Amino acid sequence: MQFQCFTGYLSLFIVFACQFGILTSEIIQPKCRDSEAPFSPAGEIQFCEAYADFGCCTHEQDEAVRIYVESEWTKLESVDSNLLPYCYDYLKNLTCLQCSPYSFGMFFNEVVNGEIKFAEHPKLCDELVTDITNACPEIARHFEVGANTIGDERADDSDGSCYPIIESEKPTGELDGVCLKELAGGLRNPLALVHAGDKSDRLFIVEHIGVIRIMEKGGELRDEPFIDLQEKVFTTDTPGDERGLLSLAFHPKFSTNGYFYVYYSRVASGEFDHRSVVSRFTVHATNTNKADLSSEMVILEINQPGATENGGQLVFGKDGYLYITVGYGGADDEMAADKSNLLGSILRIDVDTEDDDEPYQIPIDNPFVNVVGARPEIYAYGFHNPWRCSVDPGSLPDGTIFCGDVGDNIAEEINVIHKGSYYGWYHREGHLCRLNDEEKEMCDNLDDMHNDDQLPIHFYEHTPETGNVNAVVGGFVYRGCQSPNLKGFYIYADYILGKLWYLTQNSSGQWINHDLSFGNKDVCNYGYQGPWDKHHFILAFGEDEQGEVYMMTTTSVSNTDPTGTIYQIVDPARRTDPSTCSQIDSITIGEEEFPVLSAASKCTMTYALMAVSVFSQFFSSF
Length: 622
Ligand SMILES: *[C@@H]1O[C@H](CO)[C@@H](O)[C@H](O)[C@H]1NC(C)=O
Ligand SMILES: *[C@@H]1O[C@H](CO)[C@@H](O)[C@H](O)[C@H]1NC(C)=O
What we know:
This protein is an alpha+beta fold and 622 residues long. The chain is 16% helix and 28% strand. It binds 2-acetamido-2-deoxy-beta-D-glucopyranose (2 copies).
């Protein structure tokens, strides 16, 4: 029986094969038996040298293979003392196949109720089976190959998943499209995913409607919300309503002070549509999974003239100050360039020191503190709708702040935020002037008008395929451990197009834009997803404490519809040696806890500990 999704086959069989994912091309992709990408081992591979550069075994696993092979060889020798040295090579080489970057395919057996079942031994191609059976019958018996088992369908050469045929192409490990790993669903417009910086590995998900949920490591959502602000938050279930709970930022010292900050819309009186509120809340004294609704301290309130373009990002800079993004408010185009109001600006405040009048202070080096008529909170201005921003912790010394500035009707921008700069709204979108001919001079001569005029690092014009409606979703610079091919990429998206890109800087400092495509079904499978088959809106990105990047989407943008999903972005072609990607401060051996002091000691102690657990786990899968 052949497992191929091939049009000539009976359709019933194709359905079966596709449903269970038994598609040859999927199986013969480089992949490890944990369904994840191969890697370059960080520690030395002394035994299975064939996989020293790229494969599926860590240093500890390689050691485990060596010990296993040596003990098996001793056992075999005691049965047949005439075994040839050549046969030892067979035992070694075939045992080492679990370190092959193709180990998934060689050991893949079947999928039962969505669970992948692996065979005990690798699939060997017919020619090898003949040779091994003739030359080293003991080894053949050990691997259960031979006359009695060749008839088994797994031993069919034709699907290309047997050794050595499967290894005929050397995997490049180069980035060729990312996959998505679904972690949680059923969320109502998830707009932010934030970690608390408290080493708890919890992720806090902001639901537009006014609720913050906790997602545990591994993707499990806690039933009880962290905080439910629905009685305070003003929004409607109209698809596309921009008002609601928009963001969350944990104080850098959250572990000790329990403070976190939210940005939400509240009902306003009189001429205003609503107010944007920035408030501080405090986590419950004894239950860190619960925040105290009565602990609200309002930090800042901004009257909003319209229902749209509210900005709404909160983020702590590496300088410890709170940055707040505010859209131009959807009413008066002139507001963003006018520094006497907070609209269309990015604000920077010090929330650690209270002033006589305000629950915050102005950092003394804010750019407009001494400018008459300007609000001293303003750090940069001239924005249309700086909707999602992030700090790149990997860039020195201050941590670059990137913002996607959602445009009006011409272009979408990605900006790097500089102190005191003017970002062009409403004269420009991208590099494009939006004024009529008479006014154009204002635009062309912007340098004369604004000395601090700042162009985006990248912009794209609105696309006909979405009816010229677009909205950029600012993302993150990938600083995670798991996907080394993505390191340093600023990943962002378009909400309507459902498309991802990344920006990198070349050696002369120019920003270069690249498509970040999704891998096809052959590589994004078994727990991963590739391109979407139905229309999804990309709402936002998030980052965990290890720097892994997540994406939030929804199929319905009404904030009462629980169609929001959280995905982790992963590279199916290459990952980092998994033994080096854990962030641990201490380890427990027996009853005792040992602090892990430096990166080097962390590695040694982790290895020591892992060698034990890996060894037992590894062999339970033989
Ligand atoms: C074992 O692997 C080595 C290195 O790849 C190769 O040179 C040798 O021919 C192999 N031996 C057998 C018996 O498969
Ligand atoms: C960087 O990119 C710019 C714009 O594409 C290009 O003109 C420049 O030559 C590049 N510099 C290098 C060193 O590649």
